[in-house]
Write a structure and sequence with these properties.
This protein has a single domain, classed as TIM Barrel (Alpha-Beta Barrel). The protein contains 8 helices and 10 strands. The strands form 3 sheets. It has a 6-stranded mixed sheet. A two-stranded antiparallel sheet has the order 5-6. The chain has a two-stranded parallel ribbon with strand order 8-9.
């Protein structure tokens, strides 16, 4: 078994709320400088910059997981991480067709830049990526599984755009096996009111929109091997983490 330092929630310059300095080369270099072993690129409702970050990271000993932060029809943010790039890009095509067709106004919301692995801007995405999709939370587990991925509810401790903040609770029939917190200070409290979390792995990631916000190497995951399959398989396992009623 090996321990890998991670940050599974990083936005690139494709997210309109992401800084334009969040280019593939800059993300890869900063993550390597911070001595991270593995990162995930999770732009809003898009995987289109994942390939460029994967290519940019090849000069470092840095593993990149292709991903997306999807906004459901309930306006809940969910991380979707994929076992391979092809599956991620196929899911990207599906999601874009289910995104509200509202054009981006870069002056208001920010640019949505597509970059190659050398940080050259090669285009932009037309529709506003921070809108919700018409994909329901209830259908998301099966959908992402069909596209060879896993789901992780994002930042459960936030006061907006999380399952708890938007629905008021976590449905007991939820099938995810891992959940993300921005800060684990509320973990015990939220597990007591949502017992399903007691059988979930818990990750803490940065939700970085700026280079300086990418995580330091303080959060680790123990896996058999340093590859995407081993990491996602580990995050997909149901566990008996702790009893919230102690």
């Amino acid at each position: 078994m090996i321990n890998l330092s991670y940050d599974f929630h990083i936005h690139s310059c494709l997210s309109p709320c992401g800084d334009n300095d969040m280019t593939p080369q800059n993300i890869a270099a900063m993550s390597a400088l911070k001595r991270l072993d593995v990162i995930a690129i999770t732009d809003h409702n898009s995987c289109k910059n994942c390939a460029s970050v994967i290519d940019a990271a090849q000069v470092y000993d840095l593993l990149v997981i292709p991903g997306m932060e999807l906004t459901t029809s309930e306006e809940v943010h969910v991380l979707c991480l994929f076992y391979d790039l092809t599956s991620a890009l196929n899911f990207d095509d599906y999601v874009y067709k289910h995104l509200l067709p509202i054009k981006n106004n870069a002056k208001i919301f920010g640019e949505q830049l597509l970059c190659n692995s050398q940080d050259k801007v090669i285009g932009n995405v037309e529709n506003l990526l921070i809108n919700s999709t018409d994909i329901s939370l209830d259908s998301l587990w099966e959908l992402v599984t069909e596209y060879n991925g896993i789901i992780i509810p994002a930042h459960l401790d936030k006061d907006s755009t999380s399952i708890i903040s938007n629905l008021g609770f976590i449905p007991l029939d939820s099938k995810f096996k891992c959940a993300e917190f921005k800060d684990t200070k509320k973990l015990k409290e939220l597990t007591e009111s949502n017992p399903i979390l007691s059988s979930c792995s818990i990750i803490t990631s940065s939700d970085a929109h700026y280079l300086q916000d990418i995580s330091e190497p303080i959060h680790t995951i123990q896996v058999d091997e340093k590859n995407i399959r081993s990491i996602l398989d580990t995050l997909s396992k149901k566990i008996n983490r702790w009893n919230p009623n102690y």
